[in-house]
Design goal:
Elements lengths: L1 E7 L4 E7 L5 E5 L5 H10 L3 E6 L11 H7 L4 E5 L14 H4 L10 E3 L4 E4 L2 E7 L8 E7 L2 E8 L2 E2 L2 E2 L9 H10 L9 E4 L5 E2 H7 L1 H4 L2
Parallel strand pairs: 3-4, 4-5, 5-6, 10-13
Antiparallel strand pairs: 1-2, 2-3, 7-8, 8-9, 9-10, 11-12, 13-14
Length: 214
């Protein structure tokens, strides 16, 4: 499994390119801006996106979706059903509030908890982790059936958690999502968040101040 992380858009969100070893298929996770940079990296690494997956619908994670869909029409835009309206509504996506240009687009696949996406030898499992947004998800990548990595979006960061003061956010729900879903994974599971540096489940379980005090 290969993961390439790009910091994109004015808020420098993490756009992750996920690709199986030795295969051209890829998933673009949270293309929050700089569509040409993302496309350039895909070309440079000789990757063909099969999926464009959104961990949630806020504009800093979705701004480049429409442009990438035009560039790669075969790629499936995937988002949880509860956040799908944000792809059509600039207010719901917080585009006006953040000041990021908004271009609406339509999802190709609506995701729900427990859904799986196949990517070469990897299986991407959808984990519904509401709290930051109603349709927030984390993406658990399994290799040979075993957890290998989790893409946590704006649910869990290294030393932090996602904001819950936006419309649809709920603090206790976010804490519950982390404790019951993400912290149930093996300690060595690599965590790739929507902002900031990677971490591990074990590190956050032991040291994340928001979870220690919750």
């Amino acid at each position: 499994m290969r993961v390439f992380t790009l910091n994109v858009g004015p808020l420098q969100a993490c756009c992750h390119l996920l690709a199986p070893d030795g295969a051209p298929d890829a998933a673009v996770i949270d293309p929050g801006g700089d569509a040409e940079l993302i496309a350039e990296q895909l070309r440079y690494r000789k990757l063909a996106p099969r999926y464009i997956i959104l961990t949630h619908g806020h504009i800093d994670h979705t701004e480049a979706v429409a442009a990438l869909k035009r560039a790669y029409p075969e790629a499936l835009v995937c988002v949880h059903e509860a956040d799908a309206p944000m792809l059509r509504d600039k207010g719901a996506a917080l585009a006006s509030w953040i000041g990021i240009p908004f271009e609406p687009c339509e999802p190709d696949r609506l995701l729900a908890d427990g859904d799986t996406l196949e990517l070469g030898a990897e299986t991407i499992e959808v984990m519904h982790t509401p709290g930051h947004t109603p349709g927030g998800i984390a993406l658990l990548v399994r290799h040979a059936g075993e957890p290998a990595a989790i893409f946590s979006g704006d649910t869990l960061f290294a030393g932090g958690i996602g904001r819950t003061d936006f419309p649809g956010g709920r603090y206790q729900q976010l804490i519950e999502s982390i404790r019951t879903r993400l912290f149930a994974l093996p300690e060595a599971t690599r965590v790739y968040p929507g902002h900031g540096e990677p971490t591990t489940v074990g590190e956050e379980r032991r040291t994340n101040p928001f979870l220690l005090s919750a």
